Structure formats: structure tokens, C-alpha cells
Amino acid sequence: MAPAEPHARPFVAKGEIPHFEEERDGWKGYVEWEKYPEKKRKVEKIMSRYDFPDPPQFQLGPLPDTNPILTGERWKQYHQACGLGHIPEVSWVIVQKEKAEDMIHVLQFPYNGEPSRKRLVETEITNNKDHFVRNHGGVPEIDADKYTLDIAGLVNDPKRLTLQDLKTKFPHQTNTVTIQCSGTRRIEQIREYPGDGDELINAPWGEGAIGTARWTGVSLKKVIKYCGGLREGAGHLEFYGADTYFKKGKVYNYVVSVPWRKVKANEVLLAWDMNGEPLPRIHGFPLRVVVFGYIGARSVKWLYEVRAIRTESAAPVQRKEYLYYTPQVGKQNARYSNGFSIQEMPVSSAIMAPRDGDQIVHDGRVALRGWAYSGGGHWPVRVEVSADGGSVWYEVPWERMSRKYFHAWRLWEAELPVDAEGWLEFCVRTWDNAMNTQPTYVRSAWNWDLHVTSSAHRIKVYSINRSRPETAARLKQLEDRGIPVVPITHPIEFDLESDEEYERNMEAQGGRDPEE
Known about the structure:
The chain is of the alpha+beta class. The chain has helices spanning 37-48, 73-81, 86-98, 117-120, 163-168, 186-192, 220-226, 260-264, 316-319, 442-445, 469-481, 499-508; strands spanning 27-28, 104-107, 112-114, 133-134, 141-142, 148-153, 159-162, 173-180, 210-219, 236-247, 250-259, 268-274, 277-278, 288-291, 303-309, 323-324, 340-341, 348-353, 359-362, 365-373, 380-386, 394-395, 410-417, 422-432, 457-465.
């Protein structure tokens, strides 16, 4: 495990550490909380005895130069206090086994990680090892042969189905779907306008909390039909995940819901394959939900129950998390009821190469690469890039964009004409098929919970244009002397011009001072 966050005190047990039985044989790391109110009350009493570490105050200073960036000590100690201290260790082992070696571990536990920026946009379909992960608890280890899924609540014929039932009783469906965390690009809000710290930690995501896969499974609509359809009054489907989740000193399983109309549109998949392979454990093996066009938080992993209910779920992840507030709402006045629930993802995009802060030597054109996405069944139709902060925009040629999908991103490439030198602000914006586009500045997208950074993505790049004669001459001087051009902060270890050149140039300019 990574070293603890510097502010964190070591965990010290207060009283006897409890033991909660795992609910099912072959389901390691799964404790059922929702069916047992007495267990929930016991945990609440246990949690009240502890003074857990404060969440790290990373928003008001530079991020730690470590990987993992944050370790999640508070969340680990929640698990230790409840006798689940082995779960963070097991989850980290799975991360190291299943994810790419160069993943950016934004939060070690519960695991939040994004891939190499450059590699993310090299392929239209994201490699499983590179697909981002946003977990809310530990990773259960479930034996596929002992897996069952309950279809319950307001259905006419409730059933318990095995994984084999799902694979043999229903037609298989494969869809190309982008999943995006609502926290994608959160670091841009944090850098300019910090917001809610949140006990789970509003992780400082960059541009990589998005990925696209070919998901295979069965449409939930067909499963509900197999169970006799919905009873009168049912309007939402609630999904139960086997991971343990904490909120305000209480314990839960991870539970969210989506409206029946989303299921009825064949836009909710119960998936067992990811890019032609069984789901990795970190991504929900053996079965997960994939909700097309919604925030990733609705695509529940390690699914063990689907319950038909009348209204949206009252579980805390649905009711108390993933809320979008106006800029006038903050710590001083936020309530759960004055933020709206985030479901469909808005149009967004990002420049993945070059990177913010890069210093580039070029010949008057700079190559850019990135992604563009819009949720809710919309798709990007136009991507525009600018080298002057958004005054002049250039359209990315359609030939330089990947194919269109109803529920997936488009990758794009562009060569931007750049004559100017020095620090420039490159930016990108996207238009979707419904004429939606992005706010111009991050200030327009700021909200207290720091979700959905949908503004035009901006990076600062230092431009060195060698098509300019003076620049070409200086680059030759540096090359001849073996002095690097980049970083620009490396000093030039020779005179910028000779005394003779200086005097000649000053004479041509009429000197430094006026003559009268």
C-alpha cells in the first residue's frame, strides 16, 4: 500500500473490532447491509466512537507529487473500524494486477484511476487495462459459478437468475458505449474555484476519467419482461451493488436508480463482457450495469439485485450525491433538495495532446489530439479548436474524426495554424447533433460539488515557431552549443548578441531615448 496521507493518524481500535459475516458463499468482500437494519445500527454506533482523520485539504494547495496522489486514509479507517480492514489491501492488489502500470492513481481507496493521456486517444475502443475506474468502495471477489441476481420489487413474477440463466435465456446484445465520470476535468474547477471536499473525497480528476468499450450482455428490458413486466405504479429500477459504502457515519451497499423509460428504450445493459473478455474484477465481474449516456455513477458494478420501485431511490448515492447546484449555492446554504440530480452527461471535450504547460518547437502548425462526447443519445457533430483563447475557431475536418455512435465519443485530430510565439491558450469546444455546445469558461460551469466540468477545455502552451528567421537562428545557436531549448527555464549560457550587434541594432532603432 502507498504511504499514508501526511495528516492521517494511525488507526487505533476503540473497543472490540466487530465481525460481519459475508452474505453468500463464494462472495468474498460482500456484506449485505440493506436487508439488515440492525447491522446498520450497530455500525452507526461503532462509527460514532471514532474521530476519523479529516479528508486531505488538497484543493487549497498543490497536489501531492505522488502516485497514488491521495490514499483515502479516512475511508480505509472506516473499513478497519467495521472489521473490513482487509478490503483496501485486496482491492489494491486487484488494481495492480488488472490496470496498466502507468495508471494515474488519483485515489488509492476507494480506487479512482485514469490512464495515460496520450494513450487514451490512440484507439477508438479503450483497452481494458487503460479504462478509467471510479469505485465507491472495495472490490468484491465473486465466484461466477455461485453468482445470482435477484429481480424483485414491483415486478409481477420476481425471480433469482444465475449468470448462466442470463447468458442462455436471453438474446445477447453488444453496444459501443462511453462511460464518463461526472468528475472528469474536476481539477480545472479546483485550481480556479475550490468547492466541496466531501468525506469520500471529490477526487482531482483530469481529462482521463472517460473510456469507451464494447459491452456485451442482455437488455434489462428483456429481463423485466421475462419476470412478467412491471406492476402498476412502478416507475424506476433500483440497482444494488455488493460494495460497501459510507455516508455521514452510516453504512450502506452501493444503490442507485434510473427511470423505467430509460430501461424501456433498451439503454440499460446487464453486461458480463468488456471488449470481448469477461469483465475485469475492478470493473464489476461477474455482472454490472451499463447505462447508456448517463453519468458513470448509475452503471453499478457487482450487481446483485434489481428492484422495481415507484419513485427514484432514496439511497444516499442517489438522493445525497451527484447533485448539481447553482453558483450561488455552497457550504453556507447547500441542501440535498436544492441541487438537481445529474443523469445525462452534457456535451464535453478535451485536448489530450499537447499537455498543459508543454513547450513546443514547430513550423507554423501545431498538432492536437483529443476526445469529444455528448450523453443522452446525442453525439458530437463538430469539434472546433482555437490557439488564441477562443477568439478565432477552426473546425476539425470530419475526416480527422472517428466514426459516430449514438452512445460513444469521437476521437479527433487537428493541425492548427500557429504563427504567434510565447505562451498561448489553446482550447476546444464541441457541438452535438442537438446544437448543444460548451460554456466558454470554467467559471460558468462551477458548482459546489465540482461535478460536470463541461466548459471549453483550455491548455497553456509555449510556442516556438522556427519558421520565423530570428527564431530559427537562435535554435541553431542553441543546437551548436548543445544547449536544450526545452525547458524554456534552462538558462542561455552565452550572450544574446555581441556588442557590435547590439550597437548596430540600437543605432537602427534610433537609440533608446528620443533626441528631443
